[in-house]
Amino acid sequence: MREIRTPIGEDVAKTVCVGEKLLISGKIYCGRDAVLPKICALAEQEELREKGISLVGSVIFHTAVSVAGVGPTSSNKLEIETSIPILSKRGVKLHLGKGALSKETVRALGEYHSIYAVMPPVTALLKNNTISTRLIAYPELGMEAFYELEVCGYPVIVAAAKGECIW
Question: Do residues 82 and 119 lie in contact, with contact meaning Cβ atoms separated by under 8 Å?
Fold first, then answer.
């Protein structure tokens, strides 16, 4: 397994291959269908910095954050999948969730040198690999707000990179 730390550099993103197994450590963002359209709107309005959000080299995990832990949600939900090209263009290097993405989204990932990785639903394991949790934006959304986690050794499998995918 290849270990990578956030923020992820362009050189790392360009060398990751479909099917490769990764262990992710560092800070990652968490968001799903309720909050990602709001983060995209902030990005398009150039207002991310005001919320303390830097997407360059970041990871966005498609999940909610609750006291029970975290686990991936389906990345091919409309609100999530349409956020992937927008956020990749703004610097997100790895999107993490579950499920197959459209060919258009896979192409956009390749265009912006971004990666999509999948993870089986392993909530208990991930709780043990989560060092800290911090609410970043939209607290009114509860567990679907935008969070930052500090993680150590999150196991993932690259599902799409360089315009190619495993499905």
Answer: no
